[in-house]
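Exercise 7.
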Amino acid sequence: QVQLVESGGGLVQPGESLRLSCAVSGTDFSVHVMGWYRQAPGKQRELVAAISSGGTTSYSDSVKGRFTISRDNAKNTAYLQMNSLKPEDAAVYYCNANFFGIDGDFWGQGTQVTVSS
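Solution. The predicted structure, written as tokens, is:
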């Protein structure tokens, strides 16, 4: 059974940094695209950043220059380095992955990021 487990969320002050991790387990299929989404209260879930198996990355305009997505294919793990955090970055962050040879997307359970002074 495919599982995505996020970690690294927490409470930080504006301007500080956090690093989220997403570990994939339960499958021998290779991960294709991994992405980080976030959902703030009362808002729709939005794509923050994504990275392909070849390392191509994309970012939402709101986080460009502040967030960096990366992955370790050997560990089946993706990371989201978040710098210069703002109160508007506060949300539940979800990891998403799709796989070569498996239909559909898979989601983690989410990790809370709170940015407040």
